Amino acid sequence: WEQFCCIAALEEAVFITGGFGTDSGRLRTTQAMVGGMDAPTTPLSRSKQEAREVWPLWKLVLIALPQLSVQVLWCFIGPHSAPYMQHLGAGTVLATLNNIAGPITGFFTGPIVGATSDGLTSRFGRRRPVIVTGLVSLWIAGMLFSGAEHIFPLRQCGAAGPASILEGNATNATRLLSEAEPMPVPCTALFFAAPMYWVMDVTINILQTPHRALVADLASPHQQVPMQVVFVFMMSIGNFLAFSIMQIYEKPVDHMIELMLGICLLNTVCVAIQFSVAREIPLNKADGPKKNACSPVLDVVEAVRHSPCLLYQLAGVQCLVWIGNTAWNLYSAQWFTQAVFQGAEHAGKGTEEYNNYVEGNAAFSFGGQMKSVLQLISTLVIMAILLKTTIRPRLVYAPCIFIGTVVSLLAAFVVGHAGGFAKLCLIFSIMPETGSFAIPFGLVATLNTRAAQEGKVVSTALQMALLNCCVTVGQQICTMILAVIESQMSLEKALPLVFMVAAAAQGFGGIGALFLNDAPPDAPLAEDSEEETEADAEVGTEADAQNSGEANTAPAQEA
To answer: How far apart are CA 267 and CA 74, in angstroms?
Structure first.
């Protein structure tokens, strides 16, 4: 972590052309020439170095505040996207498949938006125009998505009727609902909301990409580490607020437009506070990077081709870990309400199924709040271990992943209908995600430090972008597997099976993490040690001969 922050500070101190951000907002720089050549410096970067304003930490905290509201948005919309699709009349398979919107849009939107932001020459700065664009588009897409049922009113029918149109199986539909339980007919509202969900995911990525970049632009090198801790707090508090919002209504999917309105207002307030504090120096057109919109994707492909073995190992581990993380992040709400508590979203108010659904949602919300608290504590503990001890990162990362393996196995085979046990599993399911945010990116920094010592060209940010892409691949795999399982059985039976898949994936991921080569960059390799030993011996022999010659000539010189 310390090495990562040092590299971030180094890249911030010089002008790096063609940088970009990612969907998680952690990255914003691109290739830097390290070891053997100095990074290019433009007149703009020199003026920034000569007259750089040192911002108070409290101002940087306010500038980072929108990360909190964006995290509220992600944490709320993730577990409720599929239930909302079902609320509009979609079958379980289609509702699950629509969740591939996030991984696909994040894979492409982040790099492209980041590249646009880094090269923007607006008089209002590089970051703020992009943030405003994302916020305005979020308002439009968010309101249209959440208000679909109000724009196109839903029709009601019996469960055995047209409700099975999108399910593709009338038996499935009648099994999920009794004859007395009304369900919306798949209609215009569903076909309008499904693609609008994709558009909304794009707008969220546009909004969130420049936030960390703006903070990194303004923070001094010694403020980089404290600001990373601030972002951890923002994300944890955002998650806590999102799970708290879920407790406002008994059935959140019945009040999507009200909840989305509140979340959009929260994002607007946070961005307004950010803009009232932040000031940007516009980028001159002559200094702007000369790259097109496809350059970030092409750069990532180029970085993959020339990356060392450790990066491929990390990429595989990240993909496996996020198969498990996605099972918990996107589908644990349905697991609580329908599998653990045996509720039904379309059950009539006052029925046992309705009460069970409400109780399951309350248990999920409380478990999520406690999960957010554990996320904050565990992140700080991991950072302290990596900074204050000599324990290797892989020995910290692997146990975090194995904790996720254990809780996924318990969810699949042991929990059953025990609500308290389910909440405990949900709380500790955050550990693999916490480790995946803190450790792999630090290992990339370690890897590139070693490469820089060897005089090689390194691509720190591009390699980190590859790790983020692997996160989206894991999300895609989990969603597709669950959709296939749901096509063969009911949702209640499918959800425990996806936790079995999560346990297997994270088990292999933990084993892979144990075999990562995370030796510190100043530890020479075996071949290097032998070469250095031979070179030292030769130098020692030459030195002895030289000293001997000097000793023989000393009397003559004195005479």
So the answer is: 12
Buried b (16+ CB within 10 A) or exposed e, 162-192: bbbbbbeeeebbbebbbeebbbbbbbebbbb
Q: What are residue 183's DSSP bridge partners?
A: 157
More confident residue, 538 or 193: 193
What's the CA gap between 92 and 535, in Å, rounded? 67
Regarding pTM above 0.85, the answer is no
Give the residue from 332, 336, 329 showing the smallest Cα distance to 362: 336
User: What is residue 458's three-state secondary structure?
Assistant: strand
From 162, 160, 168, 149, select the one nearest 87 (Cα to Cα).
Answer: 149
- The amino acid sitting at 518 is D
- Looking at the DSSP bridge assignments, the partners of residue 184 are 156
DSSP assignment of 142-210 equals HHHHHTHHHHSPPPEE-TTTGGGTTTS-HHHHHHHS-TTS-EEPP-HHHHHHHHHHHHHHHHHHHHHHH
Residue 177: pLDDT band with limits 50, 70, 90 = very low
Q: Helix or strand or coil: residue 503? A: helix
- Cα–Cα distance, 14 to 221 (Å, whole number): 12
d(CA 370, CA 249): 19
